[in-house]
Amino acid sequence: MLEPFKSPQQIGPPSRRSDPSLIAAVDVLRPMQSKSNRTTIHDLERAERKRLFRNRLLSLWPVVLGLTLGCFAPQLRHALAPSEPWGAWLVFPFAALAGRPELHLSGESSHIIRLIALYAQFPVEGLLMRLMMRNRVTVSGVAREVFLVHFLGAVELCLLSGMAAQLALR
Q: Which of 6, 51, 69, 132 gives 20 to 30 Å between its CA and that of 22?
């Protein structure tokens, strides 16, 4: 009944407890065990760093998509030429707004600003998507926001061009 209250020297046979070869073996195993633990911890930390790096790279997909679309923006604008003005207004509202006469820019500066807006629109939207997604907004929520911005740009273009007034007078 008093077995749990005995000291370690009283539990086992005395010949095995005081064997110097066992003590030496334990002393040899202890550094190996801690080195193994350090290696395991180092491997776990390395795997965690790789996982975090991979997650950071994967979180940059909106920026990469925006840069890719920005590179192909002139071809996309050319493909939308048959649906002028609505197609270009919905996809590139900022480039269309940059070319409006209400800005009172000269012809050359208006052209340069339209080109900058054409090439920069998708990368800027990709960066904004990435920033919104950091706040745990879903992809569909971000797409809704981008669509809303494009829609509002197209509505502003309708108002500036006088189309809304013509439609209202009919």
A: 6
Count of CA atoms in the C-beta half-sphere (13 A) of 81: 6
- Domain ranges for the chain: 13-57, 60-169
Any idea which residue has 């790096």 for tokens? 53
Of 100, 109, 92, give the one whose Cα is nearest residue 159: 100
Say if residue 114's pLDDT is above 60.
yes
Contacts of 9 (CB under 8 A, 6+ apart): 17
Quick one: which H or E segment has residue 19?
A: none
| Residue-level pLDDT at 151 | 85
pTM, to two decimals: 0.60
Token pair for 7: 């000291």
User: What is the residue whose two structure tokens read 């919104």?
Assistant: 132
Residue 89's SS3 state is helix
